[in-house]
Amino acid sequence: MYNSSVGGTQSAGSRMYRYEVAGMRSGRKSGSSFIIAPYSRMGDVMRQVARQGGKIVAIAALDGNSGPAVSTFVPSEPSAVTSAGDNGLSSSTKKAVTHEQVQVNTYRPATPLTAKVVSNDALVAEGGVGIVQHIKFDIAGSDLKYAEGQSIGIIPPGIDKKGKPEKLRLYSIASTRHGDDVDDKSVSLCVRQLEYQNEAGETIKGVCSTFLCDLKPGDEVKITGPTGKEMLLPPDEDANVIMFATGTGIAPMRAYLWRMFKDREREANPHYQFKGFAWLVFGVPQTANILYKGELEEMLERYPENFRLTYAISREQQNSEGGRMYIQHRVAENAPEMWQMMKNPKTHTYICGLRGMEPGIEAALGAEAEKEGIVWKDYVRAMKKEERWHVETY
Fold this sequence. Notes:
This protein is of the alpha/beta class. The chain folds into three domains: 2-101, no CATH class; 113-227, Translation factors (Elongation Factor Tu (Ef-tu), domain 3, Beta Barrel); 240-393, Rossmann fold. 22% of the residues lie in helices and 28% in strands. The protein has eight helices and 18 strands. Helix 6 crosses helix 7 (358-371). It is globular and about 65 Å long. The two termini are 38 Å apart.
């Protein structure tokens, strides 16, 4: 459904845009509504949508006859929403991209993006457990635009046990929106090959993870997405970010940290220069399994005032009771400081990795909250409402 009441007809010299809006109280009960308006009324459109409880899903430029969209407007580096007094976008007054402007489902299972593998590198050092690969895909020339914290889907080739084509699997993106080469031409994943023993004692390997880990440069892959807004970083440069990760749950954390601390990323993002404090607690079985170890420790060395790195190495370190050191033990050790940080409205907490770590993390932090008479579950509920508590576990 189109709604031209905001923009009227196109005037000479005024570029028209189509806004796809979801959740408008005065619009459709389900699906999207569309508003067509000129560039000069962009600020008015955004305020109208906000007043009516909607969210802008996408913005597309129209051709001279207000026909089908000829190009997709993607607010890339930081962005694009102007202040109340601005008319449209101004390169001199750009602000951070809002979550509503982050794209989702550009490519769907029926129409995936076919991308080629650029590189596939091992992340586990000698003597480590399992196989984990950092895989980079070439997306140059495509419409795949993503933000840190999003995921993409991979459709492996072949037929499943029911005789149907394999379904997609979702993987957290491990690169920033600019890609590992900071040229907007790639997207990267951190993938662990799934392997386990079934009841018959047979070794079973994951279909999609094995497919990905075995890829070679030049191989083609079908990609969908991007998906998800749960794990997006706050646009506030002064935010505090606490990250809990196990294994390949490091993927979105790597993207966050690159955006915060990598020199070329900071050069590419002049309107986002992280000034807050980031704390990563990373759980792995042994030192050889610390994924991206060199990168993490280089950032720690260069930004000691803004970044703290805490490892929980289960097979090499002991907790206070003499048992194995897991991520929840590190949280318990640092719970007083973390709790004080979480009471700051500028603090966002991210959890990614094995679902089994959640209860231990919440128990440790909950004990601190209780000392002040605060019910932890209620506080988490409040943080979720404020979009400060972000969880993606499996």
